[in-house]
Write a structure and sequence with these properties.
alpha/beta; Rossmann fold; 42% helix; binds phosphoric acid mono(formamide)ester; binds norvaline
Protein backbone atom coordinates (compact mmCIF):
# COMPACT_ATOMS: atom_id res chain seq x y z
CA UNK A 1 0.00 0.00 0.00
CA UNK A 2 1.50 3.32 -1.06
CA UNK A 3 1.52 5.95 1.67
CA UNK A 4 -0.07 9.12 0.38
CA UNK A 5 2.74 11.24 1.85
CA UNK A 6 5.29 9.01 0.13
CA UNK A 7 7.24 8.46 3.34
CA UNK A 8 9.44 5.36 3.76
CA UNK A 9 9.61 4.92 0.06
CA UNK A 10 12.77 4.70 -2.00
CA UNK A 11 10.69 5.45 -5.10
CA UNK A 12 9.29 8.62 -3.54
CA UNK A 13 12.85 9.75 -2.75
CA UNK A 14 13.88 9.18 -6.36
CA UNK A 15 10.90 11.12 -7.70
CA UNK A 16 11.54 14.33 -5.72
CA UNK A 17 12.78 17.11 -7.97
CA UNK A 18 12.45 15.09 -11.20
CA UNK A 19 11.05 16.41 -14.47
CA UNK A 20 8.19 14.62 -16.21
CA UNK A 21 8.78 15.14 -19.92
CA UNK A 22 7.92 11.61 -21.06
CA UNK A 23 7.13 8.33 -19.29
CA UNK A 24 10.09 6.85 -21.22
CA UNK A 25 12.23 8.52 -18.52
CA UNK A 26 10.39 6.63 -15.76
CA UNK A 27 10.69 3.03 -14.64
CA UNK A 28 7.64 0.78 -14.69
CA UNK A 29 7.80 0.67 -10.88
CA UNK A 30 7.67 4.47 -10.74
CA UNK A 31 4.65 4.59 -13.07
CA UNK A 32 2.87 1.92 -11.00
CA UNK A 33 3.71 3.85 -7.83
CA UNK A 34 2.27 7.11 -9.23
CA UNK A 35 -0.93 5.34 -10.27
CA UNK A 36 -1.33 3.73 -6.85
CA UNK A 37 -0.66 7.09 -5.22
CA UNK A 38 -3.26 8.70 -7.48
CA UNK A 39 -5.86 6.08 -6.48
CA UNK A 40 -5.19 6.91 -2.83
CA UNK A 41 -5.34 10.64 -3.54
CA UNK A 42 -8.74 10.13 -5.13
CA UNK A 43 -10.01 8.04 -2.21
CA UNK A 44 -8.93 10.81 0.20
CA UNK A 45 -10.63 13.40 -1.98
CA UNK A 46 -13.87 11.37 -2.12
CA UNK A 47 -13.77 11.12 1.68
CA UNK A 48 -13.50 14.91 1.88
CA UNK A 49 -9.81 15.00 2.80
CA UNK A 50 -7.36 17.25 0.99
CA UNK A 51 -3.86 16.81 2.43
CA UNK A 52 -1.99 20.11 2.03
CA UNK A 53 1.21 18.49 0.84
CA UNK A 54 2.32 21.52 -1.22
CA UNK A 55 1.45 24.33 1.22
CA UNK A 56 3.19 27.53 0.15
CA UNK A 57 4.40 26.12 -3.18
CA UNK A 58 3.70 27.68 -6.59
CA UNK A 59 3.44 25.92 -9.93
CA UNK A 60 3.94 28.12 -13.00
CA UNK A 61 1.65 26.95 -15.81
CA UNK A 62 2.83 28.10 -19.25
CA UNK A 63 0.50 27.64 -22.22
CA UNK A 64 1.45 28.11 -25.87
CA UNK A 65 -1.77 26.34 -26.93
CA UNK A 66 -5.41 26.16 -25.91
CA UNK A 67 -6.53 24.02 -22.98
CA UNK A 68 -9.57 23.27 -20.84
CA UNK A 69 -8.77 20.06 -18.91
CA UNK A 70 -5.03 20.56 -18.42
CA UNK A 71 -5.32 24.10 -17.19
CA UNK A 72 -8.24 23.49 -14.84
CA UNK A 73 -6.98 20.18 -13.42
CA UNK A 74 -3.48 21.51 -12.67
CA UNK A 75 -4.79 24.75 -11.17
CA UNK A 76 -7.41 22.99 -9.03
CA UNK A 77 -4.88 20.28 -8.11
CA UNK A 78 -2.43 22.86 -6.76
CA UNK A 79 -5.19 24.59 -4.77
CA UNK A 80 -6.32 21.27 -3.27
CA UNK A 81 -2.73 20.47 -2.27
CA UNK A 82 -2.50 23.81 -0.43
CA UNK A 83 -0.39 25.54 -3.08
CA UNK A 84 -1.04 27.83 -6.02
CA UNK A 85 -1.17 27.29 -9.78
CA UNK A 86 -0.22 30.40 -11.75
CA UNK A 87 -1.56 30.55 -15.31
CA UNK A 88 0.72 32.19 -17.87
CA UNK A 89 -0.11 32.62 -21.52
CA UNK A 90 3.23 32.29 -23.35
CA UNK A 91 2.24 35.22 -25.58
CA UNK A 92 2.23 37.53 -22.55
CA UNK A 93 5.63 36.40 -21.30
CA UNK A 94 8.88 37.90 -22.62
CA UNK A 95 9.59 34.48 -24.17
CA UNK A 96 6.70 35.32 -26.50
CA UNK A 97 8.79 38.20 -27.89
CA UNK A 98 12.14 36.49 -28.05
CA UNK A 99 13.65 36.16 -24.55
CA UNK A 100 15.75 33.00 -24.53
CA UNK A 101 14.66 29.70 -23.03
CA UNK A 102 17.94 29.76 -21.05
CA UNK A 103 17.15 33.09 -19.36
CA UNK A 104 13.47 32.22 -18.88
CA UNK A 105 14.29 28.90 -17.19
CA UNK A 106 16.88 30.40 -14.89
CA UNK A 107 14.63 33.30 -13.90
CA UNK A 108 11.57 31.12 -13.31
CA UNK A 109 13.65 28.87 -11.05
CA UNK A 110 14.10 31.88 -8.74
CA UNK A 111 10.34 32.28 -8.20
CA UNK A 112 8.60 28.98 -8.70
CA UNK A 113 8.64 25.45 -7.23
CA UNK A 114 7.72 23.78 -10.51
CA UNK A 115 6.67 24.48 -14.10
CA UNK A 116 3.93 22.82 -16.11
CA UNK A 117 4.20 23.68 -19.79
CA UNK A 118 2.05 23.04 -22.85
CA UNK A 119 4.27 23.80 -25.82
CA UNK A 120 4.47 23.46 -29.57
CA UNK A 121 7.89 21.86 -29.50
CA UNK A 122 9.07 19.01 -27.29
CA UNK A 123 12.66 20.12 -27.98
CA UNK A 124 11.91 23.49 -26.41
CA UNK A 125 10.51 21.82 -23.29
CA UNK A 126 13.65 19.67 -23.04
CA UNK A 127 15.77 22.81 -23.31
CA UNK A 128 13.69 24.53 -20.62
CA UNK A 129 14.13 21.55 -18.30
CA UNK A 130 17.91 21.77 -18.81
CA UNK A 131 17.94 25.39 -17.68
CA UNK A 132 15.74 25.13 -14.60
CA UNK A 133 16.54 23.88 -11.11
CA UNK A 134 12.86 23.02 -10.51
CA UNK A 135 10.73 20.15 -11.92
CA UNK A 136 9.29 20.69 -15.39
CA UNK A 137 6.08 18.79 -16.18
CA UNK A 138 4.95 18.25 -19.77
CA UNK A 139 1.32 19.34 -20.22
CA UNK A 140 1.41 18.31 -23.95
CA UNK A 141 3.94 18.82 -26.71
CA UNK A 142 3.99 17.81 -30.36
CA UNK A 143 5.31 14.37 -29.32
CA UNK A 144 4.04 13.47 -25.83
CA UNK A 145 1.18 13.96 -23.36
CA UNK A 146 2.28 11.94 -20.30
CA UNK A 147 -0.18 13.35 -17.72
CA UNK A 148 -3.06 12.38 -20.01
CA UNK A 149 -1.72 8.83 -20.22
CA UNK A 150 -1.50 8.50 -16.43
CA UNK A 151 -5.15 9.57 -16.14
CA UNK A 152 -6.11 7.14 -18.92
CA UNK A 153 -4.54 4.11 -17.26
CA UNK A 154 -5.86 5.24 -13.88
CA UNK A 155 -9.38 5.16 -15.33
CA UNK A 156 -8.99 1.61 -16.65
CA UNK A 157 -7.50 0.52 -13.30
CA UNK A 158 -10.40 2.09 -11.46
CA UNK A 159 -13.05 0.46 -13.63
CA UNK A 160 -11.44 -2.95 -14.16
CA UNK A 161 -9.55 -3.31 -10.84
CA UNK A 162 -6.24 -4.06 -12.58
CA UNK A 163 -4.80 -3.40 -16.01
CA UNK A 164 -2.08 -6.02 -16.55
CA UNK A 165 -2.91 -8.30 -19.49
CA UNK A 166 -5.79 -6.16 -20.81
CA UNK A 167 -5.88 -5.26 -24.50
CA UNK A 168 -6.19 -1.60 -25.45
CA UNK A 169 -6.80 -0.56 -29.07
CA UNK A 170 -5.85 2.96 -30.12
CA UNK A 171 -7.44 3.79 -33.48
CA UNK A 172 -6.54 7.03 -35.27
CA UNK A 173 -3.54 9.35 -35.57
CA UNK A 174 -0.13 8.20 -34.29
CA UNK A 175 0.17 11.47 -32.34
CA UNK A 176 1.28 12.84 -28.96
CA UNK A 177 -1.61 11.18 -27.09
CA UNK A 178 -0.99 7.84 -28.82
CA UNK A 179 2.74 7.94 -28.00
CA UNK A 180 2.24 8.51 -24.28
CA UNK A 181 -0.70 6.10 -24.01
CA UNK A 182 1.20 3.19 -25.52
CA UNK A 183 4.24 3.85 -23.30
CA UNK A 184 2.06 3.98 -20.16
CA UNK A 185 0.24 0.78 -21.14
CA UNK A 186 3.58 -0.92 -21.84
CA UNK A 187 4.79 0.02 -18.35
CA UNK A 188 1.71 -1.65 -16.90
CA UNK A 189 2.02 -4.89 -18.91
CA UNK A 190 -0.96 -4.24 -21.18
CA UNK A 191 -1.36 -5.41 -24.79
CA UNK A 192 -1.43 -2.24 -26.85
CA UNK A 193 -2.63 -2.30 -30.48
CA UNK A 194 -2.34 0.83 -32.63
CA UNK A 195 -4.27 1.20 -35.90
CA UNK A 196 -3.44 4.20 -38.08
CA UNK A 197 -3.82 4.99 -41.77
CA UNK A 198 -0.67 4.63 -43.85
CA UNK A 199 1.50 7.69 -43.44
CA UNK A 200 0.17 8.48 -39.95
CA UNK A 201 1.95 5.70 -38.06
CA UNK A 202 3.38 5.78 -34.61
CA UNK A 203 6.96 7.14 -34.37
CA UNK A 204 9.19 4.09 -35.04
CA UNK A 205 11.82 4.97 -32.44
CA UNK A 206 9.24 5.51 -29.69
CA UNK A 207 7.46 2.33 -30.84
CA UNK A 208 10.67 0.33 -30.39
CA UNK A 209 11.20 1.72 -26.89
CA UNK A 210 7.58 0.99 -25.93
CA UNK A 211 7.95 -2.55 -27.26
CA UNK A 212 10.96 -3.20 -25.00
CA UNK A 213 9.13 -1.84 -21.97
CA UNK A 214 6.05 -3.95 -22.74
CA UNK A 215 8.13 -7.14 -23.10
CA UNK A 216 9.77 -6.54 -19.71
CA UNK A 217 6.30 -6.37 -18.17
CA UNK A 218 4.64 -9.31 -19.94
CA UNK A 219 2.71 -7.04 -22.29
CA UNK A 220 3.02 -6.26 -25.99
CA UNK A 221 2.78 -3.46 -28.55
CA UNK A 222 1.63 -3.95 -32.13
CA UNK A 223 0.91 -1.67 -35.05
CA UNK A 224 -1.42 -2.16 -38.02
CA UNK A 225 -3.26 -0.23 -40.72
CA UNK A 226 -6.39 -2.29 -40.05
CA UNK A 227 -8.73 -0.92 -37.35
CA UNK A 228 -10.59 -4.25 -37.09
CA UNK A 229 -7.37 -6.11 -36.29
CA UNK A 230 -6.65 -3.66 -33.47
CA UNK A 231 -10.22 -3.68 -32.14
CA UNK A 232 -10.65 -7.47 -32.08
CA UNK A 233 -11.22 -8.64 -28.47
CA UNK A 234 -10.14 -5.26 -27.07
CA UNK A 235 -10.99 -4.40 -23.46
CA UNK A 236 -10.48 -0.69 -24.16
CA UNK A 237 -11.10 1.31 -27.35
CA UNK A 238 -9.33 4.70 -27.50
CA UNK A 239 -9.19 7.50 -30.03
CA UNK A 240 -8.14 11.14 -30.34
CA UNK A 241 -8.81 13.92 -32.85
CA UNK A 242 -7.60 13.44 -36.41
CA UNK A 243 -6.30 17.02 -36.57
CA UNK A 244 -4.25 18.13 -33.60
CA UNK A 245 -3.64 21.71 -32.52
CA UNK A 246 -1.29 23.35 -35.03
CA UNK A 247 -2.31 21.06 -37.93
CA UNK A 248 -5.45 22.98 -38.87
CA UNK A 249 -4.37 23.59 -42.47
CA UNK A 250 -4.21 19.79 -42.98
CA UNK A 251 -7.76 19.25 -41.67
CA UNK A 252 -9.45 18.51 -45.02
CA UNK A 253 -6.76 16.04 -46.15
CA UNK A 254 -6.86 14.33 -42.77
CA UNK A 255 -10.67 13.95 -42.87
CA UNK A 256 -10.20 12.00 -46.09
CA UNK A 257 -7.20 9.95 -44.88
CA UNK A 258 -8.86 8.89 -41.62
CA UNK A 259 -12.40 8.25 -42.87
CA UNK A 260 -12.17 4.47 -42.32
CA UNK A 261 -10.74 4.89 -38.81
CA UNK A 262 -13.81 6.10 -36.94
CA UNK A 263 -14.68 4.25 -33.73
CA UNK A 264 -18.33 3.45 -34.39
CA UNK A 265 -20.85 0.68 -33.62
CA UNK A 266 -19.51 -1.53 -36.42
CA UNK A 267 -15.93 -1.31 -35.11
CA UNK A 268 -16.73 -1.78 -31.40
CA UNK A 269 -18.70 -4.93 -32.36
CA UNK A 270 -15.23 -6.54 -32.67
CA UNK A 271 -14.23 -5.51 -29.13
CA UNK A 272 -15.25 -7.32 -25.93
CA UNK A 273 -18.89 -6.81 -25.07
CA UNK A 274 -18.04 -4.84 -21.93
CA UNK A 275 -15.32 -2.77 -23.65
CA UNK A 276 -14.49 0.70 -22.26
CA UNK A 277 -14.42 3.68 -24.63
CA UNK A 278 -11.87 6.40 -23.82
CA UNK A 279 -10.97 9.70 -25.50
CA UNK A 280 -8.62 12.37 -24.14
CA UNK A 281 -11.05 15.10 -25.34
CA UNK A 282 -11.82 17.52 -26.90
CA UNK A 283 -13.77 15.22 -29.26
CA UNK A 284 -15.28 15.70 -32.70
CA UNK A 285 -18.45 13.63 -32.75
CA UNK A 286 -19.05 11.84 -36.07
CA UNK A 287 -15.39 12.30 -37.05
CA UNK A 288 -13.05 10.09 -34.97
CA UNK A 289 -15.94 8.73 -32.89
CA UNK A 290 -19.64 8.09 -33.49
CA UNK A 291 -21.98 9.90 -31.13
CA UNK A 292 -23.57 6.56 -30.24
CA UNK A 293 -20.21 5.35 -28.89
CA UNK A 294 -18.94 8.42 -27.04
CA UNK A 295 -22.35 9.08 -25.50
CA UNK A 296 -23.16 5.39 -25.06
CA UNK A 297 -23.09 3.12 -21.98
CA UNK A 298 -19.46 1.96 -22.53
CA UNK A 299 -18.03 5.48 -22.53
CA UNK A 300 -15.96 6.65 -19.53
CA UNK A 301 -14.70 9.91 -21.03
CA UNK A 302 -15.87 12.23 -18.26
CA UNK A 303 -14.54 10.00 -15.47
CA UNK A 304 -11.31 9.91 -17.52
CA UNK A 305 -11.20 13.73 -17.73
CA UNK A 306 -11.85 13.94 -13.98
CA UNK A 307 -8.96 11.60 -13.34
CA UNK A 308 -6.55 14.17 -14.76
CA UNK A 309 -6.95 15.91 -11.41
CA UNK A 310 -6.05 12.88 -9.30
CA UNK A 311 -3.24 11.60 -11.52
CA UNK A 312 -1.61 15.04 -11.63
CA UNK A 313 -2.00 15.59 -7.88
CA UNK A 314 0.06 12.42 -7.48
CA UNK A 315 2.68 13.79 -9.91
CA UNK A 316 2.76 17.21 -8.23
CA UNK A 317 2.90 15.86 -4.67
CA UNK A 318 5.82 13.58 -5.56
CA UNK A 319 7.88 15.80 -7.88
CA UNK A 320 7.58 19.26 -6.26
N1 LIG B 1 -7.05 16.28 -22.94
C1 LIG B 1 -6.52 17.51 -22.80
O1 LIG B 1 -5.31 17.70 -22.59
O2 LIG B 1 -7.44 18.51 -22.83
P1 LIG B 1 -7.15 20.07 -22.92
O3 LIG B 1 -6.56 20.34 -24.26
O4 LIG B 1 -8.49 20.71 -22.74
O5 LIG B 1 -6.19 20.45 -21.82
N1 LIG C 1 -3.70 15.39 -30.09
C1 LIG C 1 -4.43 16.52 -29.55
C2 LIG C 1 -4.64 16.34 -28.07
C3 LIG C 1 -5.39 17.44 -27.39
C4 LIG C 1 -5.52 17.23 -25.93
C5 LIG C 1 -3.68 17.79 -29.86
O1 LIG C 1 -2.45 17.80 -29.77
O2 LIG C 1 -4.32 18.78 -30.22
Amino acid sequence: MVKIDGSNSKIAENLKGRDLLTLLDYTSEEVAYLLEYAMNMKKEYMAGNMPRLLAGKTLGMIFEKHSTRTRISFEVGMIQLGGYGMFMNARDLQIGRGESVYDTGNVMSEFLDGIMIRANSHEMVKELAQHTTIPVINGLTDIFHPCQALADILTVKEVRGSVKGLKMAYVGDGNNVAHSLIIAGAHMGMHMAVATPEGFEYDPDIFGQAQKIAEQNGGSVMQTNDPVEAATSADVMYTDVWTSMGQEEEAAARLEAFKDFQINDALVAHAKEDYMFLHCLPAHREEEVATSVIDGPNSYVFQQAGNRLHAQKAVLANLL
